[in-house]
Fold each of these.
Amino acid sequence: MSDTACLQVLHTQIDLDSWHAGEPGTVAFVPTMGALHAGHLALVRRARDLADRVIVSIFVNPLQFSAGEDFDSYPRTLDADVAALRDVADAVFAPAISDVYPDGDPRGVPQYAAGPVGETFEGVSRPGHFDGMLTVVARLLDMVKPDVAVFGQKDAQQVFLVRHLIDEHFDTVSLEVVPTVREADGLAMSSRNRYLSAEERSHALVLSRALRLASTDPTTALAQMRALIEAEPEVNISYVDAVDASTFRSVAPVDRGVDRVAPGTTLTYIVAALVGTTRLLDTVDVTT
Ligand code: PAF
């Protein structure tokens, strides 16, 4: 970003098109729902290394929230987000719902289905979440037309599905995945951390502590992780598992014992839990 460049705030496809026309060069894109924290800023810094210009979207996508979830209360902090991006990005794309979905109707854009992987793990308690997420990511890629899209590893299932979306439908876009950014005490950064009370936050640390037990032997590691988390009374596990990173299928189905894990396999350990009423995710990769 040149010294004289200043952050542009764009809202519509027309704004995006004139931003593209204004300056040649490659574009890196960081899609977000706002409420930015240091984890997002790490994505933006990585984006800066990868392209001439960086654009960050801020859009709370109604299509990926189920009834009863926190769509209405999801933190919307546009002024603070724009301020945080002022020196690190070239543009913010902050559309209204009707700029993304014609007439505000999500059915007006091509729909993408996450398939069987979308029904596991996060998809069990959030039916339709991944279809809505893929649909908006595809829509944003169509609108922003980046050369590279940058995502955080923390949402491992999302990253797996976005990788397939990009491989299958966006051959001019490459995907960059950035490691999870953690607080000094290990808590994975998340916009939802702000919902935690001080006490809940200290209970939530058990998730990153558990993931430090990840090893190349998922049988032992998963048992230890589960025991550790279950010993924390305020933390209710949704799942703790190890999946093959290339398929996102569990390598440790409880009903038939652990499958053989071939040497060189990357295992993605995933954990999700409710801490109070806040749902938190964390993940770590281990190569056997
Ligand atoms: O990870 C998120 O913040 C959202 O799922 C995304 C990728 C911005 C799509 O709404």
Amino acid sequence: MPDLAHVIREISEEMAQRSDRGTVADYIPELARVDPKNFGIAVIDAEGQAFTGGDSDTPFSIQSVSKVFTLTLALGMAGDRLWKRVGREPSGNPFNSIVQLERERGVPRNPFINAGAIAVTDLILSGHEPREALGEILRFMQFLAQDASITIDERVAASEKRTGFRNTALANYMKSFGVIDNPVDYTLGVYFHHCAIAMTCRQLATAGRFLAHNGRIPATGHSVVSAERARRINAIMLTCGHYDGSGEFAYRVGLPGKSGVGGGILAVAPGKASIAVWAPGLDAAGNSHLGRVALEQLTQRMGWSVFGA
Ligand code: GLU
């Protein structure tokens, strides 16, 4: 087995030097200010040992990576009832597509495209004040990452609120079909804020550990979800975690993963490791370009693909 510390060091060095860095998201103005030269990686193995490289302790906007955790929370609240509001099929469409929603009568394809994640957030919000729902999500992240210092970047949340016309359209459209229960402004407020949670690669990899270990946090033995649920969340990450780049990610990396337009990716090597990478420049599908390249190298060299060595 190759030496993981050595592999991470080599990958980090190569990523720091590459000139193909993708394009930083600018439809949320605050994200456009992030330096595309950043690159960070954190891998936490089954024993809990952390291997890190580059800017692994710099907080970044987790954006859609938060959708893995809101899905986990919503499944805990509603169980399989959740699947009445949102499907489980890859969309084959961009993350913010409206077209499919019209054809499918307001029911989003999966919980990881924007429409689906907004419907999931709405479910978490029901019966709560927006502030309470948001506190619940943030505390869940802090608990999983074992770090109470994790916060929401209010500037990013405000920036997205100011410019989130497309998400507002999606939410109103779903509301017209009865898929959204709460006032659209409340649901979107919670959604924009959980997307604006700022975390480091190290914190994110720690938070994802339960998905790599049958629903349990190995360090504490604490069960976050059942093994069956962890397996199913991983399945949705594999098939839907990278929007219309999900097939390419499975082909190249071969792990369940979820990306965000902040340039982060959480990837899960079941039984082996939880991995977070961050490189802010995105590819055409809105996924981190060098994040994907780094993960491809890591899984190939470690033989971690779920599809075989
Ligand atoms: N907050 C972003 C949006 O709704 C999340 C998109 C992403 O990270 O892919 O547009």
